[in-house]
Specification:
The complex is a heterodimer of chains A (104) and B (453).
Chain A: E1 3-5, E2 11-17, E3 20-26, H1 30-39, H2 42-48, E4 57-62, E5 67-72, H3 93-98, E6 101-103
Antiparallel strand pairs in A: 1-6, 2-3, 3-5, 4-5
Chain B: E1 5-11, H1 19-26, E2 32-35, H2 40-52, H3 60-76, E3 79-82, H4 89-102, E4 109-114, H5 122-127, E5 148-153, H6 157-165, E6 170-173, H7 180-190, H8 197-210, E7 237-240, E8 246-249, H9 260-267, E9 277-278, E10 283-285, E11 290-295, E12 298-302, E13 305-307, E14 312-332, H10 336-353, E15 363-368, E16 385-394, H11 397-405, H12 410-413, E17 418-419, E18 429-440, E19 447-452
Parallel strand pairs in B: 1-2, 2-3, 3-6, 4-6
Antiparallel strand pairs in B: 1-7, 4-19, 5-14, 7-8, 8-12, 9-10, 10-13, 11-12, 14-16, 14-17, 14-18, 15-16
Helix pairs in contact in B: 1-3, 3-4, 6-7, 7-8, 8-9
The chains are: A alpha+beta (104), B alpha+beta (453).
Chain lengths: 104, 453
């Protein structure tokens, strides 16, 4: 096992959900899915996004897609139309999660 | 009944490339062309336009697109389903019929779906006890009553199917859900009933995959190095079967990529609970789908399960919520970050000196290039330059305009290396607030009508 960025073996997509964002992340085989489920706890994702996400985080599993989906509340600096941020829709939050290093 | 129907999705959102629909119509076989022209804020813009001109308030891009494609659409018998009607579907229908007349196309059947626009009905609905409380924070609608700009119900696929059944070749709706543009043709072609939940869930899932256009054919894919020929990226085609299975594909010879990964990426877009995707026609379980690559640029989905929809429609309301302005300058190195931070402090300081102050949550300072999108995760401590992006929002338009005047002067009265001020003064623009709510389905009746050129 060694530290490795999620981006070397996982894929992600994100977008806005009200005043928050969702980050979907998935892999391509069962072994990596086990790693994903083990490493990507809500607490770790919350810590990773601490400068971006000011609210609660919820995790959902979609085993058929080998995917996890995270809902990040209050992560856009106000809702889509009110936010002054460059990334007002959380379009880049998926890539931000792929920057995380995990044991693999 | 046909055993296969090809549904292309040519516009993923208001402002998408016109090449999507133009090429779908020209570059291969197609039965239906679905197009999404609406976003939450577009309805409020359209209500304002309609207020000034009773013939406005729909997506004029749709008619411009048809100027280029209608002869092919007519010749090949392709059916078009679009939510281009905005808040004035009848005016959109009139414009399409006028275009058909200009192009000498006779017998074109154009249909509209109405009933989604409930702005004028709000007092009556509220009197009847339908309070339309904010889904996110529970506030009653009365909190923004005098600032409301638009109110539209998300209409489902059966209204689309009904319009097609009445013979429309071009179906124009207002606030139809994006997936309904795909599921509607399936219901019409395959005769699905309102209790065929698994099939409706499949149609919804197909629509969700296609609804952002090229975002399922290689666009915005984190494995982007695998994607060939972004220039000629193919827009998605759903190859639908009567049993609810379908294949996601694109026309032969187009660029882009359709793979398990590009399809799963899009399934996760704007996803909440993947077991319970709520729509007006059914509840879809996205975790039930089997997803397999069955050929080059062909991904098949099967086994999808669904259940009944809820008793309520989702309603999207918008309201005036103050003003905002954003202004930016480029600050070069050396010491770009320190100088950009100083610039921000100077602007806030000078505004305060002149009696113009903003609360912390009303202003923003971003140093683009130093790590804005991935704050706290991937930042740079010494970039050669940054774009200093300053913004404010509040209810007072004059204060927002005052802010806009105090950014450009930094070029001569701040630290050295400030440039890139080409945009001039930032002016206050309206903030449109978004208000999601639920409404009892019994309160909404859609109407369908077809006219002929």
């Amino acid at each position: 096992m060694a530290k490795q960025k999620l981006g070397t073996f996982a894929f992600a997509r994100s977008g806005d959900k009200g005043d928050g964002s969702n980050v979907g992340i998935f892999v391509t085989n069962a072994e990596d899915y086990t790693i994903l489920k083990r490493e990507l706890t809500v607490a770790r994702v919350k810590e990773h996004f601490k400068a971006i996400c000011k609210g609660e985080i919820t995790r959902y599993e979609a085993p058929n897609m080998l995917a996890l989906n995270f809902l990040l509340r209050d992560s856009l600096g106000g809702g889509g139309s009110e936010s002054l941020k460059t990334d007002a829709q959380g379009k880049t939050h998926g890539l931000a999660l792929l920057e995380m290093e995990v044991e693999r | 009944m046909r055993d296969k129907v090809l549904i292309g999705y040519g516009q993923g959102f208001w402002g998408d490339s016109i090449l999507g629909p133009v090429r779908l119509v020209r570059e291969g076989p197609l039965d239906y062309l679905a197009l999404d022209y609406l976003a939450e804020v577009t309805m409020s813009i359209m209500q304002k336009l309609k207020g000034r001109n009773p013939k406005a308030g729909y997506a004029t891009d749709f008619v411009k697109m048809l100027e280029r494609t209608l002869p092919d659409i007519h010749k090949k018998g392709i059916k078009v389903v679009a939510n281009a009607g905005g808040v004035n579907p009848q005016a959109c229908l009139d414009a399409v019929l006028e275009l058909a007349r200009k192009q000498g196309i006779k017998g074109l059947k154009v249909g509209v779906i109405e009933g989604d626009d409930i702005l004028a009905r709000l007092p009556e609905l509220q009197k009847g006890g339908h309070m339309l409380a904010n889904m996110d924070d529970g506030r009653p609608l009365s909190a923004v009553q005098d600032k409301l700009l638009s109110a539209n119900v998300y209409i489902g696929a059966f209204a689309v199917a009904e319009c097609l059944a009445q013979g429309a070749q071009i179906v124009i709706g207002g606030r139809l859900t994006d997936p309904a543009l795909v599921a509607g043709p399936m219901i019409h072609e395959f005769g699905w009933s309102p209790t065929d939940y698994d099939k409706l869930a499949a149609g919804t899932m197909a629509g969700h995959i296609a609804e952002c256009g090229a975002q399922c054919t290689g666009g915005n894919y984190t494995g982007w190095r695998e994607v060939k020929d972004f220039v000629r990226i193919g827009y998605p085609i759903i190859e639908a079967s009567p049993d609810g299975t379908f294949v996601v594909t694109k026309h032969d010879g187009t660029g882009g990529l359709v793979s398990r990964n590009t399809v799963v990426s899009q399934l996760l877009y704007e996803m909440g609970d993947p077991k319970r995707y709520l729509g007006p026609d059914c509840t879809a379980d996205f975790t039930s789908a089997q997803i397999e690559e069955v050929g080059k640029d062909r991904v098949r989905l099967s086994g999808i399960k669904g259940g009944p929809a809820t008793e309520t429609y989702k309603v999207s309301l918008s309201y005036e919520n103050g003003y905002k302005a954003v202004s930016q300058l480029t600050v070069s190195g050396p010491d770009a970050i320190a100088k950009a931070k100083l610039c921000a402090d100077i602007v806030w300081g000078r505004l305060a000196f002149d009696g113009c102050t903003f609360e912390e949550h009303e202003k923003i300072v971003e140093l683009v290039g130093a790590g804005v999108c991935h704050a706290g995760i991937n930042e740079s401590s010494n970039p050669p330059e940054v774009v200093l992006r300053l913004g404010v929002k509040c209810q007072d338009e004059k204060k927002v305009d005052r802010f806009g005047m105090e950014v450009v002067p930094l070029v001569t009265s701040g630290p050295p290396g400030v440039t890139g001020f080409a945009g001039g003064r930032a002016k206050a623009t309206d903030i449109v607030g978004y208000w999601p709510a639920l409404l009892d389905k019994k309160q909404v009746q859609t109407r369908v009508r077809v006219e002929v050129s």
